[in-house]
Translation initiation factor 6 (Huberarchaeum crystalense), 223 residues
Amino acid sequence: MLTKLSLGCEQLIGLFLFATDNYCLAPFNIKPFEIRMIETALNIKTIKAKIYNSSFLGLFCAGNSKKLLISDVITADELQDLKNQLKTIEIGLFKSKNNIIGNLVIVNDNGLVIDSSLEKAEIQTIEKFFEMTALVLFPKKDILLGSEIVATNKVCFVSRNFNKDERARIEKHLKVPVFEVSVNFGQTALHSGIVANSSGLVVGNQTSAPELTTLYQIEQNYK
């Protein structure tokens, strides 16, 4: 299912939400009707959380249906609250000066793609946690890899800033078809405008009709 959503007046929903096939993390100030829209579109339960006393859950998380890696800026109480609610999910902490892990790491149940800006030891730490060998990509200048990719266990969306060879490598590594799209009226920052899992998509409220048509057709073809 495909749904348009803004959180309050904010269309950059991916900064505040983090979804897998099993759950969606959402900020405490989310409204009941927003929760209903998310849960209907993605067919999962919404869990309220905060990280670093903030609502930017999408920036500080990377994960798949089995594991969740969180920036170590999370407080002990916030972490324990998540563990209490995600009892079947293995949760790990990631320590780095680049703490916006959501913009640096893309992972589904099949594969792992990491931004080359991370140090070798950090990449190895992530590989060990997810038990996968990563594809390390060198994005264009001033682009964070994960900010322009959204991957599920069925499809992967990338921005126009990835060339044909890069798209092919991502497709081979994540083992899902890759599609070039935009969101929120031409934005390439897909991670901030699309929240997705194998059941559906939630996109920012400024997503145009042509963008919605493209996303809907892809979603319908790969249910």
Summary: The first strand starts at residue 2 and ends at 5. The mean pLDDT is 95. Residues 209-221 form the longest helix (13 residues).
